[in-house]
Amino acid sequence: MASSNKSIYAALAANLLIALTKFVAGFFSNSAAMIAEGVHSVVDTANQVLLLFGLRQSRKEPDATHPFGYGKELYFYSFIVSILIFGLGGGVSMFQGITHIMHPDKPGDPTWSYVVLGISVIFEGSSFIIAAKEFNKLRGGLSWWRAITKSKDPSTFLVLFEDSAAVIGLFIVAICLYLGHTFHIDYLDGLASLLVGILLICVSLILARESRSLLMGEGIGTATKQRITEIVEQDKDVIKLMHILSTYQSPNEIVLMLIIAFKTDLDVLSLDKTIVRLRNQIKDEYNLIHFVIIQPDTFLGKVSHNVQLYI
User: Fold this and answer.
1) pLDDT in tens, 57-84
2) Is 303 exposed, middle or buried (0-12, 13-18, 19+ CB in 10 A)?
3) Among the ranges given (110-114, 176-180, 257-261, 283-287), the one the predictor scored with the smallest mean pLDDT
4) CATH fold group of domain 2-216
5) Which site in 58, 102, 185, 252 is 20 to 30 Å from 273, CA atoms measured?
């Protein structure tokens, strides 16, 4: 979590430093593309603030109304961030682009735009490198895309996607700005804004998909399920592990429910001891599993009958 905070603060600092300069450059050079980039930076700045707020909210202690804690707050605010990128970032940029393609303005002096673009590439590129390095530490041996889809901490890949989109957007604007002024093609400025908008909408759809999946409740992976099955079924008092149900409450907290068929000759005291033993073994091996709920079943071939719930 500390690593994700580092990348968020780096992105926040970069966006704050360049948002105002983009607007100033866009005003003096009469560039819709630079205005679109300014909107992009403002949206990114708001996104970093929302992510930091979501991280803070997710650390709140459980209470009577939220017995499993507030971990999903991070997933909620990550989803809001993806909507903001779509609506404000992508929507405004596309609107500006279409307007200036249909009614192109005569561009002003591009000098300030080039200066700001150069500075922006340095700051946004630095932020992207920090985010990429931090995410690289977390992905292990997985490919980048596989690590993103498997990650349960949206604050890591959200910043990575935002920064990569920002860098790509800056190069799009720079190329279109150069071609437009060199060959006197006024509508290329609007085209750059439109392309930035399309880029942001594509990124927001990917982020919304991942954030929605986490918000709806993703469970543990196949390898973890297999290992938990081994732990449970190796116990001398267990006949069979019937079902495994799980959900991530936060990137660092899992709720696990096991439906287990125990041997029928166990008395209540022995059953209690077995359940405590299994729960401790699982929590000792997987420190992210904070809650283990065990429900005994009577195993009758393919048919099982629920008996009682133990937490």
Assistant:
1) 998 999 989 988 899 999 999 999 988 8
2) exposed
3) 110-114
4) Alpha-lytic protease prodomain-like (1.20.1510)
5) 252
